[in-house]
Write a structure and sequence with these properties.
The protein is an alpha+beta fold. It has one domain: q2cbj1_9rhob like domain (Jelly Rolls, Sandwich), CATH 2.60.120.620. Bound molecules: fe (ii) ion.
Length: 344
């Protein structure tokens, strides 16, 4: 994270686990967002769609044995759907209606000063809604590196905005394990290296700029990669690290009271957990935007996820601007010297 954040803000992140931007959403925008998501069907939950390719087994360890997915995918999918519908009333990914509005507001308030790296992709957004009968993600975890976005890194930054107050009375706070309290972190960037090592030397999988286009990789090659020793070792590392943190660092997590509309930044690859929502009168509502720093990996961003286009916004922290692209941001057009070094 030292290469992503300017020193002062890196220190804040390192010590507290998050950066308080000091920015709140304007009241009108906050209301617009709540109304927008109120009108999305109650039962919509996009999480199970992430399981179709079977990469979240490690996360499910302890809830479902990983092998169930291979042996009985139909049953496993039903179990996953049940698990997630117990967690959230609504989990809505990739609406993207508010990415530009929220990011523009942050840039107007000079939030680009937090960043050392120049270009950042605003990849997709997530809305999570749950009442007090839904548990949300209260188990300690870090968001697992996966193949659905192909460009998640260990240094992703999440713009995290509670749309309601989270505090001792309401519950619903985000508990974070700051790096100052525990150095253990899953080395997600190794996945990009493994991906390059596996596919960059096969011309059929590359686009016209010589970047890996994940849509061109045939199913067997992908399966071999997933079942290969390096990827399995990474997943094993994820499981062991998560269990270790659950066993020995559970008392080191920090919870903070945040107000409706308050914008904070955190890294979803650090360990975190949601607090149970206690207020029976209204729902917990969280809005997030996933920001991806850009490395010099020769891996092109994916263009669609679950049928929606994404990865379309590019933030330039030098000019303080955000640009919308017709398709996903073309990483081959970003000057090499403006990218972070994957293998440095
Ligand atoms: Fe998470």
């Amino acid at each position: 994270m030292q290469s992503i954040l300017n020193t002062q803000y890196f220190n804040e992140y390192f010590t507290n686990g998050f950066i308080d931007t000091g920015v709140s959403l304007p009241d009108g925008l906050l209301e617009d967002m709540k109304n927008h998501y109120k009108n999305v069907a109650e039962v919509r939950n996009d999480y199970p769609q992430y399981f179709t390719k079977n990469e979240h087994q490690a996360y499910l360890e302890g809830k479902i044995t990983g092998s169930l997915f291979s042996l009985l995918p139909g049953l496993a999918n039903k179990m996953v759907t049940k698990l997630y519908s117990k967690s959230y009333n609504k989990a809505i990914h990739l609406e993207q209606t508010f990415i530009e509005k929220v990011c523009s507001h942050l840039l107007q308030q000079n939030c680009q000063r937090f960043f050392k790296t120049r270009f950042i992709v605003a990849s997709y957004d997530i809305y999570l809604g749950n009442d007090h009968n839904h548990r949300s993600f209260i188990d300690i975890h870090s968001d697992i590196p996966n193949f659905h976005h192909f460009y998640e890194t260990e240094n992703d930054i999440t713009v995290y905005i509670p749309l309601i107050d989270v505090n001792e009375d309401n519950g619903g706070r985000l508990a974070i394990l700051p790096e100052s309290k525990c150095k253990l972190k899953v080395p997600g960037n190794v996945l990009l290296r493994l991906f390059e090592d596996a596919f960059l030397n096969i011309p059929a999988y590359l686009d016209e700029n010589g970047y890996i286009d994940s849509d061109k990789i045939d199913a067997t090659a992908m399966k071999n990669f997933i079942n290969g020793a390096p990827y399995k070792a990474l997943m094993e590392n994820y499981k062991i690290s998560t269990n270790f943190v659950r066993d020995y660092y559970a008392d080191k997590f920090i919870k903070n009271d945040w107000q409706a509309g308050q914008v904070v930044l955190f890294n979803n690859k650090t360990f975190h957990a949601a607090e149970t929502w206690r207020n029976p009168d209204y729902n917990r509502e969280i809005y997030m935007i996933r920001l991806l720093p850009i490395y010099d990996a020769k891996i092109q961003l994916k263009k669609t996820l679950h049928g929606s286009q994404f990865n379309k916004y590019l933030i330039d922290t030098q000019t303080g601007s955000i640009q919308l692209y017709q398709d996903s941001v073309d990483l081959s057009k970003i000057p090499q010297q403006e990218k972070l070094k994957l293998r440095a």
